[in-house]
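Q: Convert this sequence to structure tokens.
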Amino acid sequence: MHKAQILFAGLAIMLCASASVAGPVPPMGEYWYDWMGNTPAGTYSETECGQMTATSNSLAFTYVNSDGSGVSNETLSFTGTSFDSQGYLVFHAAEGDLKVAANNHIAIPLTNTSDETNTLPLALITPKAPGLTEADIAGNYAYFNQNFQVASQGGDFSIGTAAFTQGTANSFSVNHQTVGSWGESSGSDAGEWSLDSANATVTLSWPGTSDPDQAWHVAEGGLMIGTWVDTAADDVQIGLLVKKGVGRTAAEAAGTYLLQGFLSNDTYDEVWANWGTLDIGDDGTWTATVSATTGLMDEVSTGTFTLDDDGTIHLLDGTSGTTFDGVLNLDSDLIVLGCMNQEGSLGYMFAVRPVPEPTSLGLLAVGGLLMLRRRQRAGTIQQVGGTNAS
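A:
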């Protein structure tokens, strides 16, 4: 039996066991699925990339894994959901409550422990956005990219800006700062892009070079995700583009968010997950309560923030004096921060504004699935993701 078959068969049983828990029925829809996993010691990394179709009672996945196992096609039947007091979507399953930070534009499973294979995962579930035009894609974006070496301790994280221009030959440019196990650098990149509107993908290309094309998932709300699953490559990556706006105000950022981070140190021999809450006030202040798989528990930080006209956000830590930069998405329900070795952290920090009764529960439901992500390695069924979260 394929490792994914073990996953879906086992999960279907657990979710059906929670049928007594009332919850909205997910609508039909198409979603992107992007996943990265890494050992806490940074010695092994992998990615998965694919899609999910949701019906009123099932989730059907098609994805490929960077480990070379090929294409997997699986279907999950499920029922039973609720929301907790913090806004997490909760699956009440036989193995415990499963929590997901989610709204109508993104779902990120709570990762608060490494699994039996000693793996920490990051999963991003986003609704597909078919039918867009080139004019919809054109514009300015915040750019982020997390890179890990597949079988050794090493990698880097980048943050920057990207511009997509519409023309006879659609062009893009990226300017970024990068910090990694090899040091720090700044750089730029440029090429051409094309839109497959029906399939909700944007392909980046570099004419005149031998560089391979890159297909990015186009999601609702101005998000694009690029996950690399090249089995011949020495590294795996998850890149993210978040479209910027104009005329943004600090009041748009105010609210309570659920945090999920996927971080490493600058030598990439330690990887960890952060989780907690972020409260942003309409007075320009913020308070975060954060725990981590390193043993940190409920550490409280406070500070101030500013929001630029285009949605770029800057969070200043009032204790350390460190500034974390990122972006508020167009719908003001997601903040993506790039940690660039401030206080010894490199990687993504997501702040998701939860919606009490989201309309796209089909998107949200998959979070519980990912938190019970099962794999088969060395003949042993093992579990990936934060489980039994309380």
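The longest strand covers residues 183-196.
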